[in-house]
Amino acid sequence: MSNTEHQTQAQVKGAESKAAPSGPGPSKPALSPSVIALAGGVVAAGAIAGFLLLSGGGETAGTVERPALNLVKTSEIDKAAETLVPEEKEKLVTQAKACTAPLGNMRLSKMTANAGGVVRIRAGNYLSPAFNVAEGPINIAVPFPAPYEVGKGEIVVEGAAKDVFFELTPGLKIDTTGGVQRIPVIWNTSKPCGG
């Protein structure tokens, strides 16, 4: 082979190597660790927010603004049922004993000698019998004001009562002489049978 042929072959090989890349296409720059961490944080925050929304906000301890409605324990359902309206008593007791729709519990009592009055408790579509808050405390059972799994709802106190202590967790003073009193409540959804 002559010198000219060697040069021609070298030029052809050089042109081929420039025309056909020898590996995969151009590589994309890798994601930085801070971008990966940020994306992971957004996904984790979304998962936590979704869980809290589905579990009633994640609240389990009552506050002054949103007290907790306590459960009637399974062993106390029959006694608590005495305060339910007769038309719904059997259905509500059956559901509570089957742990499908537990009952909530509250206590009403006078705060002073001149306090008291007659009240009814509305919890969702349920309206309790009238209770005269006079001498001793009264324990009252009601269905939860929203599906139990939701973990929050509203209790409405109707009637004409003054300076009545409404025992939730924490308790609060009720005065319905000027109309109804609405109380946003929460409850712990982890023990549907009153554990």
Automatic annotation (TrEMBL):
Residues 1-11 have a biased composition (Polar residues). The keyword Transmembrane helix applies. Keywords: Membrane, Transmembrane, Transmembrane helix. The chain crosses the membrane at residues 35-54. It comes from the Bacteria. Residues 1-30 are annotated as: Disordered. This is Uncharacterized protein.
